[in-house]
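Incident log, support desk, overnight shift.

02:14 A customer reports that sequence design results differ from what the structure should imply. Their input is reproduced verbatim below. On-call engineer (initials T.W.) acknowledged and began investigating.
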């Protein structure tokens, strides 16, 4: 990672969110693209008593009005104050993902899923989730995993009986999400299933209830043991569409109100998912599932192409 930062040659800003203090920058290292993100970290509790004494004076652009005052200044703190992430080499899909773009709402019926979404999911190269496989088989981030049950399960090249036995094991890992800053108030973990046959929310049925409930109960237990957090302080949810097609569940603190992807049109609460499946085994195969997606995303472009084809056929 140090080498990526050192060799990075700036090209342009992909996006800059002043609310979250997060910027994504595109550049090159030799002949390949790289993306680096910078996000201002929150103050640690130990730094709070020192903020005024560490503030450089005089303040820039200082203003006063009655009892109120405001301005800009550098606060000299010893701790690192910026979260940095790198993607190298970065593909065109990475660039599209992090580049500022208008988001659109797709109202996906079961028929549209079969016609457009499912073929797109199956077209995604397997190497796109190699980083997930590395976590599951323990070759990467092993020291960050806070819970591990079982070994990676590959549904390929298995006879039906062996495959069925493995699917009943419902194993997974839990580890901190890359976006977590390590504080209790912004807790952000992710649970990743060992099995590789659950493409998305659409795949879920009653055969997956044990897995879903084990993830929920384990997350509750770990949060209580590690941070004395009761279960009603946690939010567990599944993204649709997910950012990668290997089944995972997001685990965040309720106090992390603006956690990425907690909005309607993306997050489906785990308890609701469990309840829906208990009511109807094929709920997620029958339901219409609206989702938001960037207008440069290949899946959105596939929907646009389908819409254009329908319009053309109707006009001819």
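02:41 Re-run completed on a clean worker. Output:
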């Amino acid at each position: 990672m140090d080498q990526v930062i050192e060799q990075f040659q700036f090209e342009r800003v992909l996006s800059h969110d002043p609310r979250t203090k997060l910027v994504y920058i595109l550049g090159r290292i030799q002949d390949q693209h790289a993306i680096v993100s910078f996000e201002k970290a929150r103050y640690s509790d130990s730094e709070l008593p020192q903020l005024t004494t560490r503030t450089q004076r005089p303040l820039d652009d200082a203003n006063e009005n009655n009892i109120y005052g405001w301005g800009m200044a550098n606060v000299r703190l010893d701790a690192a104050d910026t979260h940095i992430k790198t993607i190298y080499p970065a593909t065109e899909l990475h660039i599209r993902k992090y580049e500022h773009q208008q988001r659109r709402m797709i109202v996906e019926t079961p028929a549209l899923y079969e016609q457009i979404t499912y073929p797109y999911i199956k077209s995604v190269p397997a190497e796109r989730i190699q980083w997930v496989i590395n976590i599951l088989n323990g070759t990467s981030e092993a020291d960050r995993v806070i819970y591990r049950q079982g070994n990676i399960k590959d549904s390929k090249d298995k006879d039906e009986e062996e495959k069925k036995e493995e699917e009943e094991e419902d194993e997974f890992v839990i580890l901190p999400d890359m976006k977590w800053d390590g504080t209790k108030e912004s807790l952000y973990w992710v649970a990743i299933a060992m099995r590789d046959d659950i493409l998305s929310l659409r795949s879920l049925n009653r055969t997956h209830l044990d897995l879903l409930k084990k993830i929920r109960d384990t997350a509750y237990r770990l949060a209580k043991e590690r941070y004395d957090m009761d279960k009603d302080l946690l939010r567990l949810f599944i993204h649709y569409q997910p950012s990668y097609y290997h089944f995972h569940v997001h685990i965040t603190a309720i106090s992390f109100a603006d956690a990425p992807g907690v909005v309607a049109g993306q997050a489906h609460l785990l308890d609701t998912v469990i309840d829906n499946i208990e009511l109807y085994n094929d709920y997620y195969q029958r339901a219409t599932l609206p989702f938001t997606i960037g207008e440069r995303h290949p899946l959105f472009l596939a929907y646009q192409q389908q819409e254009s084809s329908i319009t053309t056929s109707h006009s001819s």
